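agent> fetching stored inputs for the flavin-adenine dinucleotide docking request
agent> found them:
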Amino acid sequence: MERETEPVESTQETQCCIVGAGPAGAVLGLLLARAGVPVILLESHPDFDRDFRGDTVHPSTLELLDQLGLASRLHQLPHGKVRTMHLRTGNRCVTLADLGRLKTPFPYVMTLPQSKLLELLASEAQRFANFKLLMRANVQRLVESEGRVHGVRYRDGDNRWHEVRAPLTIAADGRFSKLRHLAGIQSESTAPPMDVVWFRLPRKANDPGESAELYVGGGHFAVLLDRGEEWQIGYVILKGSFAALRGEGINALRSGLGDLVPWLADRVDRLQDWQQVAVLNVESSLVKCWHKPGLLLIGDAAHVMSPVGGVGINVAVQDAVEAANVLTEPLQRGAVTEADLARVQQKRMFAVKIVQRMQRFLQNRIASPGLTGTFKLPWWLRLVTSVPGLRNLPARLLAFGPRRVRLSEPAPAR
Ligand SMILES: Cc1cc2nc3c(=O)[nH]c(=O)nc-3n(C[C@H](O)[C@H](O)[C@H](O)COP(=O)(O)OP(=O)(O)OC[C@H]3O[C@@H](n4cnc5c(N)ncnc54)[C@H](O)[C@@H]3O)c2cc1C
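agent> prediction call returned; pasting tokens
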């Protein structure tokens, strides 16, 4: 048992305690709640507003939201759509992915602030009496005995300690997972050769529309995502070089971008200071074993994805769906075994590894040469994007990953 170092003000019991209300935790919380499983979801932040964290909702997640009856509500919120992805270098343009060819009611990546997606998921989950969301609940301890996790201890906004006891605890607490650390679970990291400086610039009526535009040239690499009124721009830099870029002043960023994407030159002066940018320290990592008795890691806590393809949210959501598919019935019976937890990992590991391998390949073949000024359009890219039998493959992988994950529907408990 955890040493009693602090007085605990309250203890609550539930079937499943989820730590972290990001995409993975919020989706799993909702799926379990609608199946009648008692759930407590703990989130350290006071709200869902956060610095830019990625705001792409891929067809796999849109299909899930549709199954849950939430897709039309999401579409009523202001959003952008990305239907195609182009790679532009010099005067050449290659269509990397055309989602319009896919058989899905949602042949596009939706772009909207992640907070809006999380608010929708949380408000839907809160319709169920067996679901409880606690904000400002900063989890600091695992409650353990004899090698088994029995719940967590958290500090509330007034620094008071509380305990949640549950037969199953889910660590959905993101890339710096406190629970992973407390459980002594290691993750193996690789440092891709780049970091990304994210910011937004206005979109104008005659700009390219409903697309993601990748520009490579002159030792620079940038990704532009249509976000409706704005472009979300990822300016890719060599790993660890942000301090040097910053030292050169904001003009260096403006002129690098203006040279690479000439039609943005008329608005780069909207970048006035470094407060407008968020720097993503690009990392890729994987935990070998996602579980121990009473504890399961999902989402970024189990694997941090590189930003290539912008798939982090959707991979996290797919983990949550697979966890719900496997664990709902054992949780309803109140008898989750470690074999059940291992089955969740087993169902997800292959897809996660394949995506990470593909990301590594693209980083090494496109991003690295792009940043060192040695990029040439590779033959295999021209092949994949022009041969009819292969042409849809990148779009399918982007939309659904290597394996389509669907929610197996138990009758919702209402
Ligand atoms: C700058 C940036 C840009 C990105 N761009 C994209 C993109 O365009 N598309 C994309 O798909 N992905 C993108 N990602 C990745 C994406 O945001 C993550 O892969 C995704 O959010 C992972 O979801 P998650 O639920 O596993 O973890 P998170 O979203 O990290 O959620 C974890 C939650 O746990 C909470 N938490 C952490 N510790 C505790 C604690 N001790 N107690 C209680 N709560 C805790 C956090 O506050 C957070 O709400 C980006 C990430 C970053 C940083």
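agent> quick read of the result: The chain has two domains: 8-50+114-190+284-361, 78-111+194-238+240-281+373-403.
agent> awaiting further instructions
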